[in-house]
Amino acid sequence: MKPQDPFEKIAMPGVKNVIVVASGKGGVGKSTVSANLAVALAREGYKTALFDADLYGPSAPIFFGLQDQKPEVIKEGEHEQIIPIEKYGVKIMSIGFFILSKKSLIWRGPAATAGLVQLLSTTQWGETDFLIIDFPPGTGDIQLTTIQKLNLTGAILVTTPQHIALADAQKAADMFHTPLIQVPVLGVVENMSYFTPTQHPDEKYYLFGQGGGEKLAHQLGVPLLAKIPLVADVCELSDSGKTIFSSADHLIGDQFQQLAQQVSQLLVTHV
To answer: I want to staple 26 with a disulfide (CB 3.0 to 4.6 A). Which of 137, 170, 201, 234 is the partner?
Structure first.
């Protein structure tokens, strides 16, 4: 049998843009950005999908309130195809749909990357303008396999204003700029940028520092796509399967809608 070429691309007919959302460290809200960017793009009228590539800590089923859902599996000839679950206009696929929520996924690197490739290649994405891929933190096997196996349009880096988050985001950027990889960084999203009390909408409190996103974007020569504020009910909404567009504070929803518009304008020739 002919050995599989590790650099052979996965065929994704109908998928126009594949954008990875990455960070160098956990805890910066990368999955929140991924999920709500996908929803915002769908609200702009684009056919949108979200792939949760964090195999060891999948969060998409929780973010979309789909913990008890199982995707439909259909037979096409000798091959099986998985139909992604759709909610809020977004087609969603995650390993979390196939494992119990309280069970850990104990896979070594080769098994994890094989599972990643199987999920990506057997999901029936259909006509899709934007496929958003939520990377796990870091620069390991999952990231490298995704880069090898997909024709990526670009990457979005998520950071908070903190110095340590910027340092780790810089490492993620370095991965995309490596000569053998060369994935364009589309821009930077600064999450938890500031806090504005509902009662005092003109006030901003920079709880984690200030200017970090601008600094990183300047260093990379890319735009700062958004400064996402810290809003009190985001965690509660995420835990209950609702998007930030259900927030009583419309400021965060407006920021995500502007982010979606920025991304779509950057890639208008691809849609």
So the answer is: 137
